[in-house]
Design a protein that fits this description.
This protein has 326 residues and is of the alpha/beta class. The protein is built from ten helices and twelve strands.
Length: 326
């Protein structure tokens, strides 16, 4: 069993397969010339499997593959197939562009739920955010997932200057489609030009939503990051992830493994535990995992508090979002 110093049990592992991506979203990988890690420094398929098996033996029962964009990782199909043999719920977070190519692999692996990052429904705004003109491909692939009975959660970063124009359009997606749209408060990472003025809080979005719709609060799942709501007669749901305005650290059950094999016990933590180097040297991994997780701070990586408006992003010690894993 994996516990931190506050007794929180961790059974959910997020594995970043790569720090590369075929999009350049402004809040994640804004610099077109950013250098990705060389192949020798990232986990190889057999190393990913070995580390995943170790975590499963310690109580992990859910694994999410992230990036970067996990589907651009060489050997993604092999990695997926091997992880599918483990006794875990397996899922991914993706920008959606390559889903059609890998749909057979995803179905064979028994993936039943996929998170798709989609920050704009207007193709021009989509291109402005991602610096790629691929909206239609992403949308078609979302429809393809639904046609194959895969549950789709849409992750939308609520940034000032963007979400105000499309909030109701996103909500309307849930009227006739069984989509689960989640609005995520804009979080600070290296290179993403975070400012408190760019944060649109869940409370603000909720008030805007209630001005037009009657909504019903749903029961949140254990360890949930999202506060879920239902609009009567809509097939889907909406939810708000309140990282900045009302964190959910008390019930956190998540561990992160970066593409270069570093354990991060919190997305905001500056502390990392190098598992890959130890694995390659033939050293015991389990003690390192326990030690790295045990030191987890009570909230927000110990780097800031709930008053995000006073936060100086330059004072944070962390990676860019793309090198952590979404």
């Amino acid at each position: 069993m994996l516990k931190d110093q506050f007794g929180r049990i961790h059974n959910y592992l997020r594995i970043s397969l790569t720090d590369d991506c075929n999009f350049r979203c402004l809040y994640c990988m804004p610099n077109e010339k950013i250098s990705c890690l060389p192949g020798s420094q990232i986990m190889q398929p057999h190393e990913i499997l070995k580390l995943a098996e170790t975590f499963v033996n310690l109580g992990v029962n859910k694994i999410r593959l992230t990036g970067g964009e996990p589907l651009v990782r060489n050997g993604f199909g092999q990695i997926l197939d091997e992880l599918a043999q483990l006794p875990v719920e397996l899922t991914i977070t993706t920008n959606g562009f390559l889903l059609k190519r890998y749909l057979p692999n995803l179905l064979d692996a028994g993936v039943k739920s996929i998170n798709v990052s989609l920050d704009a429904l207007d193709p021009k705004r989509f291109a402005a955010v991602t610096q790629r003109n691929h909206f239609q491909m992403v949308w078609d692939n979302i429809m393809l997932l639904l046609q194959n009975n895969i549950r789709v959660k849409i992750n939308t970063v609520a940034m000032a200057g963007l979400i105000e124009h499309e909030l109701f359009d996103f909500i309307e997606l849930t009227r006739d489609l069984p989509l689960h749209v989640r609005f995520i408060e804009f979080m600070p990472f290296n290179l993403n030009d975070w400012k408190s003025s760019k944060v649109i809080t869940a409370d603000h979005l909720l008030q805007q939503t209630q001005s037009r719709y009657k909504i019903v609060k749903l029961k949140d799942e254990p360890h949930a990051t999202a506060k879920k709501y239902k609009i009567p007669d809509h097939k889907g749901t909406i939810a708000f992830i309140t990282t900045m305005s009302d964190h959910f650290c008390e019930e956190c059950n998540r561990i992160r493994l970066t593409a270069d094999g570093k354990l991060k016990n919190c997305i905001f933590s500056s502390e990392e535990t190098d598992l890959l180097t130890a694995l390659r040297k033939g050293q015991a991994i389990e003690p390192l995992i326990h030690k790295g997780l045990y030191s987890k701070h009570r909230a927000l990586g110990g780097q800031f508090d709930q008053n995000y408006k006073l936060l100086n992003p330059e004072a944070l010690k962390n990676r860019s979002m793309i090198s952590i894993g979404g």
